[in-house]
Design a protein that fits this description.
The protein has ten helices and ten strands. The strands form two sheets. The protein has a five-stranded mixed sheet with strand order 1-2-3-5-4. It folds into two domains: 2-147, 2-Layer Sandwich (Heat Shock Protein 90); 171-287, Response regulator (Rossmann fold, 3-Layer(aba) Sandwich). The longest helix is centred in the first third of the chain and has 17 residues, at 30-46. The relative contact order is 0.12. The two termini are 30 Å apart. The radius of gyration is 21 Å and the shape is elongated. Helix 1 packs parallel to helix 2 (30-46), helix 2 runs antiparallel to helix 5 (115-125) and helix 7 (202-209) runs parallel beside helix 8 (230-240). The protein is an alpha/beta fold. Strand 9 (245-250), helix 9 (254-257) and strand 10 (267-271) form a beta-alpha-beta unit. This is Signal transduction histidine kinase. Residues 171-287 form the Response regulatory domain. Pfam families: HATPase_c, Response_reg. It comes from hydrothermal vent metagenome.
């Protein structure tokens, strides 16, 4: 994740990671946690238009009655994950609305306003809480608090599923307009041994498909801007590449994602959020057929 975050925020942003020794266990959905951390890093980057520093810090926290009350949590033991930036900061009225769905301070077309709302929902569902500490001109700290898991790890529970088989240099085209999802998919596939090319919307992705570039598999989000959705890109791609294999990425039920129609041969779907192993294994499985 650290390498992915560094590449995503770019060379103009310094990233410092401060990990606590002997960090306690907690039980959360790994893919949602990774998405939340990457989303916080992107928000921090966007708050520092002239460059700056992002600090990612983990810690064990004992919350007494007063500290727990301030965070609207029961007293007890928690893990904290905090992301701090040296950016513009937020006024109290902006902080108060930060978790509202569709609230965003970004220009039109540059943000849905769903990022912090979804992070808040994930953390609350995990039994934790999110807190924002910010002052205009002094930067922002976003802290996620997760309850300590005191039970024993079951055999096999500690490890995430592994990639069954890595890539062998095959070329995968990834089309997704969400920088977060696209960056994650590209990182997973490159690390797994694939050559990856990418596009942010349908028409530019289709131009790559219609070029002479080698493409063994198309991985595309279903809901794309630019006048062509993922299914339309896939159908157009198969005019010139009838055997092209296609993996749709969607946050919806699979049948809705493909226009309530059956998936053609060589087409499959994976829903967001996905784990590293789920995407890597699905791609390998499709290419081996």
């Amino acid at each position: 994740m650290e390498d992915l975050i560094r590449r995503t925020v770019g060379p103009g942003i310094e990233v410092e990671v401060v990990g606590a020794g002997g960090l306690w266990l907690t039980r959360v959905d790994t893919s949602q946690l990774e998405n939340a951390l990457l989303n916080l890093a992107i928000n921090a980057r966007d708050a520092m238009t002239g460059g700056g520093r992002i600090t990612i810090e983990t810690a064990n926290k004992w919350l007494d009655d007063r500290a727990a009350r301030e965070r609207e949590l029961p007293p007890g033991q928690y893990l904290s994950l905090c992301v701090t930036d040296t950016g513009s900061g937020m006024a109290p009225d902006v902080v108060a609305k930060a978790f509202d769905p569709f609230f965003t301070t970004k220009p039109i077309g540059q943000g849905t306003g769903l990022g912090l709302s979804m992070i808040h929902g994930f953390v609350r569902q995990s039994g934790g809480q999110v807190r924002i500490y910010s002052e205009p001109g002094k930067g922002t700290t976003m802290c996620l608090y997760f309850p300590r898991y005191a039970g024993e790890m079951n055999p096999g529970e500690e490890d995430e599923p592994h990639l069954a088989d890595p890539g062998h240099g095959e070329t995968v085209l990834v089309i997704d307009d969400e920088p977060l999802v696209r960056a994650l998919a590209v990182e997973i596939l490159r690390d797994a041994g694939y050559t990856v090319i990418e596009a942010a919307e349908g028409p530019s992705g289709l131009r790559l498909i219609q070029s002479a570039a080698r493409i063994d598999l198309l991985v595309t989000d279903v809901g794309l801007p630019g006048g062509l959705n993922g299914r339309q890109v896939a159908d157009a791609a198969r005019v010139n590449r009838p055997d092209l294999k296609v993996l749709f990425i969607t946050g919806y039920a699979e049948n809705a994602a493909v226009g309530n129609g059956l998936l053609d041969a060589g087409m499959e779907a994976i829903t967001k959020p996905f784990t590293v192993a789920a995407l890597g294994n699905k791609v390998r499985e499709m290419l081996d057929r």
